[in-house]
Amino acid sequence: MMDSNLDKIIYKALEGAELEKEEIVELLLLDKEDDLNKLFGAARRIRSREFGNKIFLYGFVYFSNYCRNGCSFCYSRKSNEIERYRKNTEDIMDIAVKLKEAGVNLIDLTMGEDPYYHSSGFEDVLEAVVRTKKEMDIPLMISPGVVEYDLIDRFKSSGVEWYALYQETHNRRLFKDLRKNQNYDKRMDTKLYAKNIGMLLEEGIMVGVGEKIEDIADSILEMKSMKADQVRVMTFVPQEGIPLQASAENDEYLELKTIAVLRLVCQKSLIPASLDIEGIDGLKPRIDSGANVITSIIPPSEGLHGVAQSCKDIDDGNRSVVTVEKILDSMGLKAATNMEYKEHIDQRMVQHV
Ligand SMILES: C[S@@+](CC[C@H](N)C(=O)[O-])C[C@H]1O[C@@H](n2cnc3c(N)ncnc32)[C@H](O)[C@@H]1O
Ligand SMILES: C[C@H](CCN)[C@@H](N)C(=O)O
Ligand code: SF4
User: Fold this and answer.
1) What is the distance between the alpha carbons of residues 348 and 108, in angstroms, rounded to a whole number?
2) Which ipTM value was assigned to this complex?
3) Is the full-model pTM beyond 0.80?
4) Is the separation of the CB atoms in 271 and 263 below 8 Å?
5) What's the rounded Cα separation, in Å, for the pair 153 and 107?
6) In a 3-state reduction of DSSP, which class is residue 306?
7) Is residue 117 lining ligand 2, measured as CB closer than 6 Å?
8) Domain that includes residue 267, residue range
9) Distance from the CA of 65 to the center of ligand 3, in angstroms?
């Protein structure tokens, strides 16, 4: 039987060839079960070729949910009347110890654009970073939002390996709707600055926020061209007290298809399966779509929030390494050791230079 166009595109990706935008759009529009299974199967084949059966685990510490911004999609947006908290250095250290002992490969220190830090300098944050690095020697990601370059220099010189800053979309008009009064180019320049001084970069988008399929394809090609070390997609989760509503046409496979197409296009990149969208139930489908990093592992009863799901599966311990490892085991996959993760990122950092 003649190969379908889908077969040709998948063959091309398996051969390591670059896909055209039209081919990416075609993959994102798939809706038949057999075709979806072909796409996800190809993504798994490429993941196992690049990473074997090893999956990386990231702990998540949202240490301050105060924010000066008003992103239309975000529960932490300034005007939202929510329970706000700011963890001090000791709290952050205690949580980081628990996460390391639990077996995560990296700790992601995330904050809202907290006016306290922006006005008083980031000494507390830097102290927590320096102490975590020194006392625990675990790879760190910092997700502080847009900050000045000299602070990024200080994060790097403190040993922080990763900088995460998601554009959400590379469609400038949509960006303006999502990140009100924020500057598209400043956000892009800040993450590229971090990459240019040798930090590993995580870029990301959201789906279900009013984007077109072509916008997703443009973002995938943009993430490829900036050579982001980690590339993510998250489905918008509606929140109380925010203006953005879920878009009408809701394709429940869109995030999974985007993960799979990211795998076909950015074959060597790390791709998260975030627990922050559907909790632990969302893990298997995202891993089956080609993701190779499990993010948003949050220790229970520490008063920590997720971002998209502020409470889901946290205090019942479902976002734990133990729970995650059982699921990986059932899939014939294994959590990477810290040594394996560090070797991987050391190799990446060398290639950056
Ligand atoms: C990592 S957190 C906070 C870090 C920092 N304040 C920033 O905005 O870059 C922000 C990210 O979480 C994701 N996010 C926030 N609200 C969400 C929601 N309701 N649904 C899905 N993803 C969401 C967005 O991709 C956003 O860039
Ligand atoms: C969005 C967060 C990461 C920020 N660097 C976290 N909830 C996650 O899903 O990994
Ligand atoms: S996404 Fe980040 S910057 Fe935007 S409101 Fe949420 S915490 Fe603040």
Assistant:
1) 18
2) 0.99
3) yes
4) yes
5) 19
6) coil
7) no
8) 18-352
9) 8
